[in-house]
From TrEMBL:
<feature type="domain" description="Isopenicillin N synthase-like Fe(2+) 2OG dioxygenase">
    <location>
        <begin position="147"/>
        <end position="224"/>
    </location>
</feature>
<dbReference type="InterPro" id="IPR044861">
    <property type="entry name" value="IPNS-like_FE2OG_OXY"/>
</dbReference>
<dbReference type="Pfam" id="PF14226">
    <property type="entry name" value="DIOX_N"/>
</dbReference>
<dbReference type="Pfam" id="PF03171">
    <property type="entry name" value="2OG-FeII_Oxy"/>
</dbReference>
<dbReference type="InterPro" id="IPR050231">
    <property type="entry name" value="Iron_ascorbate_oxido_reductase"/>
</dbReference>
<feature type="domain" description="Non-haem dioxygenase N-terminal">
    <location>
        <begin position="14"/>
        <end position="94"/>
    </location>
</feature>
<dbReference type="InterPro" id="IPR027443">
    <property type="entry name" value="IPNS-like_sf"/>
</dbReference>
<protein>
    <submittedName>
        <fullName>2OG-Fe(II) oxygenase superfamily protein</fullName>
    </submittedName>
</protein>
<dbReference type="InterPro" id="IPR026992">
    <property type="entry name" value="DIOX_N"/>
</dbReference>
Length: 240
């Protein structure tokens, strides 16, 4: 098992993308339309946000799950130990913290368009009998959806006093159609294969990672089944 890196501009991009998604649940895409400069500029703005204390003024509203989620707010299903991360949920209807530019909005918009392209690839390579069961096209399910979000993740430096068993993100599946995320600023992403072995996902700066979610699996009657789970072990050696 291995996650394929697909060239967005290749003549066989859609077939290679879907082949990787079906065999591993993941794909890495290069030469895509998302500007690396936009990604870097957006990362820098959020780095400053997470470094400040004002972030707590934007703590999430439990009723809508939007806003800032403090360090160790979340644990994966089946785990009691909290993940070592903090994050912000941006929705188009919720807005951004004061002091941030429109870079996040622009990044969200281009990621949404790219996600719709990927969903189009998935639909094109899905058997006709399954496509006929869809209530609408896959791209239309995601385009301009109020339920789509941009999750900005931050992994603060570790202290060497972390709780036993704590990692950045425990093994989990995503619940959505697909997740699209730019390569992180450090390594650590892993996926699990059918026999339970974990594999590092190789992803270079500027590339994007895509993984299939539970909704896609259910919608396609497990044609896009999820052979593996994902976890993040950033700075793994310091946790051992």
């Amino acid at each position: 098992m291995y996650v394929q890196t697909v060239d967005f501009k290749s003549l066989h991009a859609s077939e290679n993308f879907v082949d990787s998604l079906r065999s591993t649940g993941f794909s890495v895409v290069k030469n895509h339309p998302v500007s690396p400069d936009l990604i870097c500029d957006t990362f820098r703005e959020w780095e400053k946000f997470f470094a400040g204390t004002e972030k707590h003024a934007y703590t999430f509203d439990p009723c809508v799950q939007a806003g800032y989620f403090p360090f160790k707010s979340e644990n994966a299903k089946g785990y009691t130990v909290k993940d070592l991360k903090e994050f912000y949920h941006y929705y188009t209807w919720h807005g951004l913290p004061d002091g941030l530019s429109q870079n996040t909005v622009h990044l969200y918009e281009i990621l949404e368009e790219v996600a719709c392209t990927f969903l189009g690839w998935i639909e094109e390579n899905t058997p006709q009998d399954l496509r006929e069961t869809f209530c609408m096209s896959l791209p239309d399910m995601a385009r301009h959806s109020r339920n789509s979000l941009l999750r900005i993740l931050h992994y603060p430096p570790l202290t060497e006093n972390e709780e036993e068993g704590a990692i950045r993100a425990h093994a989990h599946e995503d619940i959505n159609l697909i997740t699209v995320f730019p390569a992180a600023s450090t390594s650590g992403l892993q996926v699990r294969d059918l026999v339970g072995e974990w594999h590092d996902v190789q992803c270079e700066p500027g590339e994007v990672v895509i993984n299939a979610g539970d909704m896609l699996q259910m919608l396609t009657r497990r044609y896009y089944s999820l052979p593996g789970w994902v976890k993040t072990l950033a700075f793994r050696r310091r946790l051992q």
